[in-house]
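Recall that a protein's primary structure is simply its ordered list of amino acids. Everything else, from secondary elements to tertiary packing, is in principle encoded there. The following example makes that idea concrete.
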Amino acid sequence: MKKLSGKKAFVAGVGDDNGYGWAIAKALFAEGCDIILGVWPPVYNIFTGSFEKGKFDESRRTSDGSMLSFLKVYAFDATFDKIEDVPQEIRENKRYVEHDAFTISEIAALVERDFGKIDMFVHSLANGPEVKLPLLETSRKGYLAAVSASSYSFVSAVRHFGPRMHRGGAFINLSYIAAEKAVPGYGGGMSSAKAALESDTKMLAFEAGRAWGVRINGISAGPLASRAAKAIGFIEKMIEYTKNNSPLGRELSADEVGAAACFLLSPAASAITGAVIPVDLGMSCMAVAVDSPAFTL
């Protein structure tokens, strides 16, 4: 029997087949876990249409030959806790109006109604509308939007899904080295949002652990050329920098992050909570850029 047979995971933030959320869902599925997806309403029809047309078939295949499938795909917008928070213009937007529910509290209740309690929650989402702006040029509105979408969304997800999770269950989020160190170009308040996410991971580990017996962890992942990352504009340079300067000296694959997340979400990691684990080829341990002309051994 596979080690996660009988388990159910809600994976929030999948929008295509080349991001970390997809890789984590695939890794969990390969171990027998049933997958429930939460997809941002503006890309919901694109994602489900592509899936149904077989455009993801090649990347759906797992190591044992099975094809990644989902119990259900919900529209899910983690910037809203309840329907009363949603501005009228968004409720009437054509990409939202077709969905009866999409806020965190609504989807948490629907998931419990449809499938009972779950065992895992994956937070693989972030958004900074001013991410291309330096922090000094970021507006208050843009800064708060980044924190709301990228870190507070996790707090709200734990609040609403925690009581609907089996004891011993686990949450995981995805952070980035910019939470701890300056990464020029990663702006718009996103570095602050990731720092908040990592801090919240620790506090939520205590509060949710005591309240519901669940674990809270994060992964600080290295750069990946996903659709979302490409919007920042310099992801290829960061991948090349990691390849040239990390201890392992190569590119990181999404599947490696998927495997790490699968472990942290599994019973094998039952004593690990409140941790943010770097999965970045060792990049976070480096203090110098070894490809710099100023550095020679």
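The two ends are 51 Å apart (CA to CA). The chain has one domain: 8-281.
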